[in-house]
Specification:
heterotrimer, A mainly alpha, B alpha/beta, C mainly alpha, B: about 35% helix, C: mainly alpha, 2 strands, globular
Chain lengths: ~230, ~270, ~240
């Protein structure tokens, strides 16, 4: 069923010159577009997540419920469709963002939902005694949160955040679906022009491994450093 | 406790005059020489209690017999048969897995932390190995298991899961599980140390029952001096990988020879 | 508003592809996870290394890159044309792109799944192994009756989550022009201007999101039910 590649010489499949010319284009895409989008996205996600997790603890029941539902909904649906939604629907309501901005916002919201769950777990893991002691000492809400609860909760969340960073790097290329010319966008553009699919996607894959594996090692280091124990 | 339980579950026939023989056993963990040239003989039906400070290697002795640790050198014989060596072509060589497994069926161990299988009922815990290893039919294993559960006083808990049992009950199930294999030697590794004080008694009662009823060879690592006094034939004081002194419980517990033994006993009894 | 035709095209036709790709990837992914997961615990260092490489590569390469590679680069590498290939699966003829989707997502899932399997088996306390040895069970008996039944319970929650991630990942096949829910939704949006009474874009993608949400929740409920059924009275300690 699959014909043997008898006649095709190696140059037909892999042209080193093409690969070599292609490398800077892909690298530029990765380091100038994909990675910046990722780092912007994770930064916002980390803050957004904290904010969402605090909303989840609001004394006002509707706020808790709506936030909870929104978080669950965002986590249960594909990032790709969320990107389409942001890029094609929002303009109808007057919000027009560039493809790059949409990607960053999409990543931030999607992962903000995930990180809010991590914060929630982290906050809840802070021993009950801490809460009670804060009340007994008559600490203000700001002090209780700022000096007692969060300083203990945040370290437990850091490993999860590291893992989400790694995951986000791998999701950022989805920007190609709304026209972001990052590492994958460059590959698709090149490949559709001169049909050199093998070089294009192999290089992208290699570049990805080169970036995500060190990040994964970093994330694992964060796990050991912050003593994260998965229940 | 049902003392009318059949004691043929505890009757084992020895072929040799020494049930457990350890010769020049050495066990090294990294830099730690835990067992040094250890020689130890246990007679059939003998009840031996091993005491000593932690790190002295006393648990390691049991683990080496149970094949949970392999000795770096030395030999172990169970009822006349080499455990870690086998005869081949007239020579004695290091044993293969098959041989070890065969001799191992004569040995069973009860652990400090019970190690019951949580996904099986108490009775299933007891009957699993007799069916799979000894080849009993389900009915035979069921009968044996039920009798043993009654003997340890848990006849009504057969269908309970370990999560539903107290620590003392779990340990008694663990004992029944080991007995179900009709071993010649039973090893007890600090089996009451993880129990709440009020539950220790029920387990000790079962141990005393086994000790008084049958011909089981028992080796116990424990801090329970009361039990040693009542049920042990011999007490071994273990320290730094070697037997420091040994004797009858009356002699050793009341009038130890070594200062180390004395201070250890003092610390334990004051606890 | 969507007409019934438009809706059923996305939900039923698209849904069928979405679910088929998901099931295919899940089956492949589970098989690979078990295979490489258990290999990762082998006593042979070589086998452990091979397992490690598989896990790192399939996890490190993002699913979309893997997908594009399998869909576009592999045919070039092996010298065939995508359009020429038809594979018959359970009586249905599927194109290469479908296979590419299943393979890419399955490989990716296998990498994550292998870690779940390995973690699950390793999480069983040593005491269980020691008790099995003390009862003279063989290694095979130990795995079958003691270790794996308990490991499965530990593995179910992360495995269930992984399933949901894979299902969401099937949306990627829309980018290689496979007619799943996302593709048909995009397609409808593109065709809007040609229609008499075009549905609002917010409705198109909103409905699509809701469809994915429903499937996600269904999978989550399924696994929760499975956990409850298998767990029953014993899970939660008692060792």
């Amino acid at each position: 069923m699959i014909p043997v590649l008898a006649q095709t010489g190696f140059e037909q499949i892999w042209d080193w010159e093409v690969a070599w010319d292609f490398l800077p284009i892909v690298a530029r895409g990765m380091f100038l577009v994909t990675l910046p989008a990722t780092f912007l996205g994770i930064t916002i996600a980390v803050i957004l997540g904290l904010f969402l997790s605090l909303l989840r603890r609001s004394p006002i029941r509707p706020i808790r419920w709506v936030t909870g539902f929104v978080v669950e909904f965002v986590r249960s649906t594909p990032l790709l469709v969320q990107l389409f939604f942001l890029f094609y629907v929002l303009p109808n309501f007057g919000v027009r963002m560039s493809a790059f901005t949409t990607l960053v916002v999409g990543l931030a919201v999607h992962y903000g939902a995930y990180t809010s769950e991590s914060y929630r777990a982290g906050i809840e893991s802070v021993a009950k005694g801490q809460w009670e002691a804060s009340v007994a000492l008559n600490l203000s809400t700001a002090t209780k949160w700022g000096r007692v609860i969060l300083p203990q909760a945040i370290p437990t969340v850091i490993p999860a955040l590291g893992n989400y960073l790694v995951a986000m790097v791998k999701d950022a290329p989805l920007g190609v679906s709304i026209g972001v010319i990052g590492v994958l966008g460059a590959a698709v553009a090149e490949a559709s022009q001169n049909f050199r699919f093998v070089e294009a996607y192999t290089l992208v894959g290699m570049l990805f491994l080169a970036v995500s594996i060190p990040l994964a090692i970093f994330a694992r280091y964060l796990e050991t450093r912050y003593g994260y124990e998965r229940t | 406790m049902d003392t009318n339980a059949p004691d043929d579950s505890l009757r084992v026939d020895a072929h040799s005059d020494v049930m457990v023989r350890m010769r020049r056993i050495n066990k090294i963990f990294g830099e730690n020489h835990v067992l040094r040239d250890l020689d130890l003989d246990v007679a059939p039906s003998e009840k031996v209690v091993i005491i000593g400070p932690s790190g002295s290697g006393k648990t390691t002795i049991l683990r080496v017999i149970m094949t949970l640790e392999r000795p770096n050198s030395g030999t172990v014989e169970i009822d006349g048969r080499h455990l870690y060596h086998e005869p081949r072509n007239g020579d004695v060589v290091e044993a293969g897995e098959k041989h070890i497994r065969e001799v191992r069926t004569d040995i069973s161990m009860v652990f400090q932390h019970f190690n019951l299988f949580p996904h099986m009922t108490a009775l299933e815990n007891v009957t699993l190995a007799p069916v799979k290893v000894l080849g009993l039919t389900r009915e035979e294993a069921h009968e044996r298991g039920t009798d043993l559960m009654k003997m340890v006083g848990l006849g009504d808990k057969a269908d309970h899961y370990p999560a539903e049992l107290s620590g003392g009950q779990k340990q008694r199930v663990a004992i029944a599980r080991s007995l179900a294999m009709r071993p010649k030697v039973m090893l007890f590794d600090e089996v009451t140390s993880a129990l709440d004080p009020e539950l220790v008694g029920e387990v000790l009662a079962v141990l005393k029952d086994i000790a008084s009823q049958g011909t089981m060879t028992m080796m116990l690592v424990t801090h329970e001096m009361g039990f040693a006094r009542e049920a042990a034939d011999r007490v071994l004081m273990f320290d730094h990988g070697q037997v420091l002194e040994e004797g009858t419980p009356e002699r050793l517990l009341r009038d130890p020879e070594h200062e180390r033994t004395r201070s250890f006993l003092r610390a334990v009894l004051e606890h | 508003m969507l007409t019934w035709n438009q809706f059923s095209r996305i939900a039923l036709d698209g849904g069928a592809i979405t679910i088929s790709v998901f099931v295919g990837a899940a089956v492949l992914g589970t098989a690979l996870a078990l295979f490489f997961g258990i290999m990762g615990l082998s006593t042979s260092q070589l086998l452990r290394r091979i397992s490690r490489v598989y896990v790192e590569v399939t996890r490190g390469a993002s699913a979309i890159v893997l997908l594009f590679f399998v869909a576009f680069a592999v045919p070039r590498l092996l010298g065939f044309r995508t359009a020429d290939v038809t594979i018959t699966l359970f009586g249905n003829d599927v194109g290469y792109l479908f296979v590419a989707g299943v393979v890419a997502l399955g490989l990716n899932m296998g990498g994550y799944g292998a870690e779940v399997v390995r973690g699950g088996i390793q999480s069983i306390p040593r005491g269980q192994t020691e008790a099995s040895i003390s009862l003279s069970l063989t290694t095979g008996q130990r795995l079958r009756h003691v270790i794996l039944p308990q490991a499965v319970m530990t593995m179910l929650p992360p495995y269930g989550n992984l399933n949901i991630e894979v299902m969401k990942g099937t949306a990627l096949v829309s980018l290689i022009a496979l007619a799943d829910m996302t593709f048909l939704a995009s397609n409808l949006r593109n065709r809007r201007i040609l229609l008499d009474d075009p549905p609002e874009t917010v409705v198109i993608f909103g409905v699509t999101l809701i469809l994915y949400f429903i499937i996600s929740q269904a999978i989550a409920l399924f696994y929760r039910g499975l956990e409850r059924r298998l767990g029953g009275r014993w899970f939660g300690g008692g060792r």
